[in-house]
């Protein structure tokens, strides 16, 4: 039977994902096929092999390659104050809500090396809200969580991040929050101590605690539609009624939730408020 090259490639991708799951425990089977194929074809070139199928034995027998492959599929790219317009909108629209709480919890899901949580903590500090906050920052990859816990950057990165910090509404010097450590800059403990980093898998783990804010930017774009729906439902179960879900400009809630669960706070930055369902209102008042 003759099969089209795309069909053959899809078979190879499916076999590879099964092997990754069985050998390494990472489940990419419901990630976006287009994005997976792009990354795998890039690896095929980089590793100088002829097909995705040739990566299969290497996943089984070559630990260093397996770790490179996982890093490449997870896409850990991040920055402090990435997309400053999002932070600006968060400060303008969500901080007034947070000011009404004496204590609140924020979950940064898919936090990579922690830059999103650090940025948010700095802005909360500048608005007198950090003392009331506990930020949980989680990622599937133990490697990025280890790095996040250090809060260590090359000194020139801080300079690069300064423009985003200003555009996000930062009021001081970004360098005020870091101390020099040889040729690196380390985030000060007074900011870092409000963040708890942990490994958490959005595909298979449950919600660990109820929170007032969930930020999950540049993560769902790598999932297929059914997995996006599953993760949004996980968020909905972990979000306090009246709480805020932030997906960032690259993602949208369209079609991923039942229409009554959320109302938009910022349409462009995809910031949503979880509405109270009738059942929730009844449980609050009884
Ligand atoms: C592109 S980064 C986004 C980082 C940050 N949120 C930002 O916008 O800068 C995507 C992150 O999602 C994480 N990720 C991918 N699949 C995940 C899963 N199933 N559970 C938790 N994190 C996951 C990756 O490890 C990666 O660090």
From TrEMBL:
Gene Ontology MF term list: methyltransferase activity
Indicate whether Transferase appears among the record's keywords: yes
The answer on whether this UniProt entry bears the keyword Ion transport reads no
Q: Where is the CheR-type methyltransferase domain?
A: 16-275
> What InterPro entries does the record tag this protein with?
Bact_Chemotaxis_MeTrfase (IPR050903), CheR_C (IPR022642), CheR_MeTrfase (IPR000780), CheR_N (IPR022641), SAM-dependent_MTases_sf (IPR029063)
What SMART domains has UniProt attached to this entry?
MeTrc
Q: Name one GO biological process term.
A: methylation
Record Pfam families: CheR, CheR_N
Q: Which keywords belong to this entry?
A: Methyltransferase, Transferase
Name of this protein: CheR family methyltransferase
Q: Tell me which species this is from.
A: Litoribrevibacter euphylliae
